[in-house]
Specification:
This protein has about 190 residues and is an alpha+beta fold. The chain contains three helices and six strands, in the order αββββββαα. The protein has a single domain, classed as 2-Layer Sandwich (Yope Regulator, Chain: A). The protein is about 25% helix and about 25% strand.
Length: about 190
């Protein structure tokens, strides 16, 4: 969906992801229950609209195509480096219902490290503040499990996680295959 207004784009993103949270993600252990869907910092950048999305399962920078971009021709899931004054960042091409094609740079997933909504907003705001300014020493951010994030975005089954965002190991089966004992006869 095309829009010329960053404010309208932010509202559309928030509404869509609130629906995803309520209808598709509810009850998953991956979620940080202290967080809610929030958009912030949506603005024009080089003919495109960009902004931050915070959800109980991820924090991402979204970038929507400008009039000169033909992102619909890019393979879904492909990764591209996009230059900002704060550094080059890898984005993944995605198509989101009702929003169309966009590119996403994931900062955090899962979101269990954030104890409050305010802490998540502060992190997203700090990232945006540094993104458009060339900082000494470059931009620092946490590594992201891109495979896990891809499964979440595609609506695939994800592994169980504890409240700290660590994968829960499957309990070994109590029944073991028995192998016949070797008996010697003379």
């Amino acid at each position: 969906m095309k829009t010329d207004s960053p404010e309208n784009q932010a509202t559309q993103v928030a509404n869509l992801f609130e629906g995803i949270h309520r209808e598709q993600m509810a009850g998953l252990p991956l979620l940080n229950p202290t967080l809610k869907v929030t958009t912030l910092g949506f603005q024009h950048f080089e003919g495109r609209i960009m902004g931050m999305l915070i959800t109980p399962w991820m924090m991402s920078l979204l970038l929507f195509p400008g009039p000169k971009d033909a992102w619909q021709d890019l393979p879904l899931g492909s990764k591209n480096l996009i230059a900002f004054p704060g550094g080059n960042f890898r984005f993944m091409v995605n198509t989101i219902d009702e929003l169309g094609v966009c590119q996403m740079h994931s900062l955090h997933s899962p979101m269990h490290r954030f104890r409050t909504q305010e802490a998540a907003i502060a992190e997203a705001t700090a990232f945006l503040d540094k993104l458009l300014v060339t900082p000494p020493g470059g931009v620092q951010y946490d590594p992201v499990d891109e495979e896990l994030l891809g499964k979440i975005l595609r609506g695939e089954k994800v592994p169980a996680m504890d409240k700290d965002g660590s994968l829960v190991q499957e309990k070994p089966s109590l029944m073991r295959e028995s192998t016949p004992a070797v008996t010697e006869t003379t």
